[in-house]
Amino acid sequence: MKKTMSKTTRSNLITYLMVAVIFGIVQVMVSTGNLSSLLQGLLVPLCAYVILAVSLNLTVGILGELSLGHAGFMCVGAFTSAFFSKCMVDTITVAGVRYLIALLIGAAAAGLCGILIGIPVLRLKGDYLAIVTLAFGEIIKNIVNILFIGRDSKGFHFSTKDSMSLGLEDGGMVIVNGPQGITGTPKDSTFVIGVVLILITLFVVLNLMHSRSGRAIMAIRDNRIAAESVGINITKYKLMAFSISASLAGVAGVIYAHNLATLTAQPKNFGYNMSIMILVFVVLGGIGNMRGSIIAAIILTLLPELLRGLSDYRMLIYAVVLILMMLFNWSPKAIEWREKHFAKFRRKNNESTKEAA
Amino acid sequence: MSFISYLINGISLGSVYAIIALGYTMVYGIAKMLNFAHGDVIMVGAYVVMTAIASAGMSPLAAVLLSIVFCTVLGVVIESVAYRPLLNASSSLAVLITAIGVSYLLQNLALLIFGANTKSFASVVPVPALILAGGSLTIAGETIVTIISCVIIMIGLTLFIKRSKAGQAMLAVSEDKGAAQLMGINVNGTIALTFAIGSALAAVAGVLLCSAYPSLSPYTGAMPGIKAFVAAVFGGIGSIPGALIGGILLGVIEIFGKAYISSQMADAIVFGVLIVVLIVKPTGILGKNIQEKV
């Protein structure tokens, strides 16, 4: 028993250490000027993507349900927190405090959405659940695009038509401007904050995985009926995993929103394309494997940028690489081939671990 | 009168969704995979027709036939190269992600060959518009052809599955792959045939869609693809009449939503109705409810 405990602790420590080492390498590269400004601009979104990948892995890998609406939760977190930051930019002048409150608000709003959506959705199974989460993601994006909120001395005004019909007084300010989104969010997100939030996300997810609740969630994934018959409350644990995953996506949204001068909800950043991209990170990295999600998110985010020299061909190559990686990783024949040719290494590894033990 | 005109437009759009949804539903029924690249095959089909008419000077009918053949071959190639090695993978998500990769690949190939600009697509339908009720109701030729093609395809496909040996083999494989193989059915061949039919239908849908909404870009297929997927789930995925009902309902709801509620909210309304239907009937309108056994 003690041995397995220490094994999970060691595995978790390796994951945290990996993030720290990557952070260190990036910091050294930035200070020595080896990182192009393009890649530097990508660092904060990259943190958001890593958090999204880890949080979606909680739904897909640990809960075992396919969700195609993860970007919707990110959207909720991004817009609520940007709304708050924009309203409070003059009231709370300390950026750190404002950011912290924005984070809590973003996470809470996304988590609440997760619960509201989860109650009906989690009754469905498999691909039906996937399509309904996709539908919710699209609806959230659609609603944000027709929402207009303004503020003047009388308080807040809402409209779903345009900014004129808000009826603002002179000096009133349009905060959410429909398809034009929120402009002028303070750019508070930094790479350091992003990495700290990645570590917190990992801490939450890894601890949940190895807790009593986490084991209950995994029992539901492996066999729902058996789990129910030993007295596990299915709805409670499913909702728990789903809403935690949603609120972590909200955190990613907060990072994402506070890195942009103008936040708009487009198909590219909050549509199903984004949800699918996060799912690609999760599946490529290994379902249920948090470390893999982080690595896959980093590689797949950097790949198009590193291929930029190939200009027009880069997305083509990205697609081919994606297909080949999937075939190599998952095809039963490729797995067989790998086991045959890499068996030597594996045996050596086993021997060395035996010696170590 | 505008109500009837919206209704007819809705049925026409729904017919296109239904034809695309057929491809989804058949592939899902037999291979248990969501073929995300299906929408992009539509786009490829439309580009083939456009190039054949504009560059090679073919007649519209010949161009459509060429496009059907091209997409059929494309579908079979995609299936054998990208999907077949993964159909027995330990996670069903693997083949889903590969399908997404294929979708990116087709979009970016089209982007390289034809450029990112939206091109206008000349309608290939020679049927003139039908003017009814003394000029107050005009039905476009494209609308008539779309609805008629949808009906013909539905009848043809139902007959094919019920009456032909290959159709029966499809039913058998979708029921139980292992047992079908033991009965001497060529499972891989049957799956390839399903992809071929689905892709041929996608080519038809692409031509009809672009004739009715005459613009074409590398991303044209993505949204109709997702909508058709929703339609397939709506009607009960795996069921052919379900695809028809789901597609037409979706088209009518979308057009009515655009006309009477808000054009920006049309997509949200479509997805909202889907959610309500699935919560009331979790396996879609015509989906079979499989009892779980312990």
Briefly say what this structure is.
Chain A is mainly alpha-helical. Chain A contains 14 helices and 5 strands.
Q: Would you spell out the secondary-structure blueprint of this structure?
A:
The complex is a heterodimer of chains A (357) and B (294).
Chain A: H1 2-31, H2 37-63, H3 70-88, H4 95-121, H5 126-145, E1 148-152, E2 155-159, E3 173-177, E4 182-183, H6 191-209, H7 212-222, H8 224-229, H9 234-257, E5 262-263, H10 267-270, H11 272-285, H12 290-306, H13 314-330, H14 332-356
Antiparallel strand pairs in A: 1-2, 1-3, 4-5
Chain B: H1 2-31, H2 38-54, H3 60-83, H4 93-114, E1 119-120, E2 130-132, E3 137-139, H5 141-163, H6 165-175, H7 177-182, H8 187-212, E4 215-216, H9 222-235, H10 240-261, H11 266-280
Antiparallel strand pairs in B: 1-4, 2-3
Keywords:
heterodimer, A: mainly alpha, three-stranded antiparallel beta sheet, two-stranded antiparallel sheet, 5% strand, globular, B: 294 residues, mainly alpha, two-stranded antiparallel ribbon, 4 strands
